[in-house]
Amino acid sequence: MPGITNGQVVAGGNGAGNRSDQLDYPSGQVVAGNNGEGTALNQLAYPFHLFVDRDQSIFIPDASNYRVVKWMVGASEGLLVAGDNGQGDDANQTNWPVSAIVDEMGTLYIAEWGNHRVTRWFKGAKSGIVIIGEQEFGDETTRLNYPIQLAFDRQGNLYVVDTDNQRVQKFAIDKSSCNT
Description:
Structural class: mainly beta
Shape: globular
CATH architecture: 6 Propeller
CATH class: Mainly Beta
Distance between the termini: 41 Å
Order of helices and strands: EEEEEEEEEEE
């Protein structure tokens, strides 16, 4: 955009194509990662997306580490909020989490590219609940085929970009059973 002179690196910084100066934005502030690719909580491995909550905490699906981490303002490392139990389809695992969003109650929703599903993780939970999709991909409206992006509308409906089905689906999410 004309007139923009500064960018801000919010994740990465040491990998190919992730540095702010490659976009000709010489002044950036790293707020997550920048310690090389790895599994430590101060590192990231293929972050695909981010979500910033009302407290300015950043939720990052750390895809190759099969986890979602939360970076609070000024933190030197992330906090584990989902996964980190290896790649898989068990309730305490994720498989290539590529999008994560948090609702007004602090509940985390994760699009899992590798599991063709969306899971819901209540705040502080050690495992998630599958709310959309199944282990096997499909084109039925109850199945997903490489979900890649999530969003809520003002009514609380959840939208899922269902990549290989060439569609966006809208789901009414039952929050009556959500923990607060």
